[in-house]
Hints:
The structure holds two protein chains of two kinds.
Chain A (H helix, E strand, L loop, with lengths): L4 E4 L11 H4 L2 H5 L7 H21 L3 E4 L13 H10 L5 E4 L10 H14 L4 E4 L5 H7 L7 H17 L4 E4 L4 E5 L13 E5 L3 H9 L3 E4 L4 H17 L9 E9 L3 H20 L3 H4 L7 H8 L14 H7 L2 E4 L1 H15 L3 E5 L7 H15 L24 H7 L8 E4 L3 E4 L14
Parallel strand pairs in A: 1-2, 1-11, 2-3, 3-4, 4-7, 7-8, 8-9, 9-10, 9-11
Antiparallel strand pairs in A: 5-6, 12-13
Helix pairs in contact in A: 3-15, 4-5, 5-7, 8-9, 14-15, 15-16
Chain B lengths: L13 E5 L2 E8 L4 E5 L10 H7 L3 E5 L16 H15 L4 E6 L1 H12 L4 E7 L17 H8 L8 H4 L4 H19 L8 H4 L7 E5 L8 H4 L2 H4 L4 E4 L11 H4 L1 H14 L3
Parallel strand pairs in B: 3-4, 3-5, 5-6, 6-7, 7-8
Antiparallel strand pairs in B: 1-2, 2-4
Helix pairs in contact in B: 1-11, 2-3
Amino acid sequence: MRELEFYICNGGKYPFVPHRDELGKTRFITTPTKYYDDLRGQQIVEDYVEDTVLAERLGYDGVVIIEQHGGPNSIVGQSITMAATIIAKTSRMRVGTVGALLNSYLTPMRFAEEIATLDILSKGRYFAGLPMGIGGNYHSLGVMNPTYARERFREAHDMIMAAFKSDAPFKWDGKFFQSEYVNLWPKPIQKPGPEMWVPAAGSRDSLAFAAENGYTYLAVLVPWPVLLRNCQQFKQAVAETGKDFDSRRIAATAFVHVAETDKQARLEAEGHFMSVLQNSLGSPFHDSFPPGHVTPQSLRGMAAGGGYRSVDIAKTTFEDGIKSGQFIVGSPDTVAERIEEITTQMDAGRLLMYPDGWTMPSWMVRKNMTIFAEEVMPRFRKRDGKPVWDQDKAGFAANTRSEFGARRGPVPAVPTADIQGVGRVDIRTSHVPELIVPVK
Amino acid sequence: MNIANHWPFYTAPDFIDVHGLKTAIRRKGTGEAVKYLHGAGLTRRWLPFHEALSRSVDLIVPEHPGYGDTPFPEWLDGFSDVVIHYAELLDQLGIAKVHLVGHSFGGWIAAEIAAFFPERLASLQLIAPAGLKDAFRHDIFRQTGEEVLARVLNGDHEKYPDYLEEGDPVEAIVHNYIESTTLARLAWQPRHDAKLERRLARVKAPTQIILAEDDRVINNDVARRYADLITGAQVVTITAPNVTTSHLPFVQAPTELAAMVSAFVSRSKE
């Protein structure tokens, strides 16, 4: 098996809104808040935090916190605020954000200060994502003219990096930002700054940006052939910088759901995954791509077919999702095999998984995350199923569930009970019909 | 654009170098110089309306920076860039004063030009103009192709098939996206120019606001306000036999609109 790092990214979607068919195009950007229920909203936010924090005890290498605005697709999308909370509730695992949106800031220095502060609070566990922001965000936040998106984003990035690297105040006289005194206090612990992840759907431009700056390419969901082409392009772009390619610079993403059997996993996941396709991802062209948000070249590629969402995503079937690698669903064996296959083809060294299907109840998310940690993760780890942040410790007690999964031997005795009409059964799996087997 | 364009009304433009921008222009006719500023679409065409109008005037139809065959220039940041570009175009053509006509988004540009260079106007005609607060009835950046068609021609677009063709479908998508990017560069937020309210008092030239009978893109009540802001401006409604005029009167009633515009130009001769 390949060696992989595992990150989770919960969605925190507010699901109590009508189906897309009924809401029409208003769904993504203008879903009325009359559907927002205070108590249900509170539960989603709290469950999100607790399920994310749980990743440390289970032995995930890290978590990634989502950035979203202006709709029910995620109500936990204030990534910087959420990161501060999750950092405070954990002590060792890595915590990253795919936000904030650089273009939503009046000055990038505000974001630079947040990055530095999170890095200090986490004692160097923080990493930052640099998303351009999805089209819908440009419609709803208002302050960002999409026709400047790329250009303004790049200048903001350059200004932040200059501030990280400088040890004296300096003047910035750019097209979008001007300041007589750029002076970053405090500075990040990691030098010059935390690791950066760049989510990219596949514009050549974004891939080159990630490659040139030494960043990790976060392979957000696009059709499989496009994804493979992106990975090839990214590796080539890395090679052009003269550096050796490290697989950890590609992070694969997938909705992952593991359960006792293939059948059970599908039963649990299907409704939620189909809802993602039908209610979360699909949106009209004008919402996904406000003017200037993509380059004419990228658009030409999409329009000619085969590109990013050239097919209506709401028409994708569950089987399509499995085939394309967007969904990885099944027993631990099935899921491990599929992860091996996908990350090998992509040459990815990290997997960012969405363990909550964006809408699953907390108990199901925790079940999925736990089985995955015990039964799947150890297969991709060298030493006792340990995450990256636990390499220096060795001892009798397992620090994480992943380590427990790797080190535990056969059970001293099978836990059993007598069930009427069936006989004595292994109680660990007696809730799954096809696993109810009488124990001799 | 180098590809052959074979859709109806396509006419290859002439190009004029305006301060480094290769500006596409179509021009025909003799008489008073009339500069017509197009709206946010149906570019790269010499339309029956243009032809009709060019029978009585010297009709100059440039394409805005980032529209039609005029490239999107790097320096395009706001309306003042377009206004100065068009002043430079007039300089280049050796025209001191011009009768300015603009439709919809082109009407907004015309209003800006009028506010900045009132002395260069012989007359001003705004057809279903944007530019004032709440002029657009819908979010102009969140419309599907079908919605646009239904709104611009009030559901009658199938009667005008020649106007709907735009050549290679992939190239058309890319081209329309670039034009829409130009529109967003100038009008993403805010979607009006609050400064016009004060600045338009500078306009002294004869002014006519032309409204459609049933405009589903521009709010007539808002467009009508131009007449309150420009001294002496009059408001007229374009009509034609057997049709209720929509946001695109130049499609539905090319002859009638040309006659109306031309008559106002004649009346405004100095």
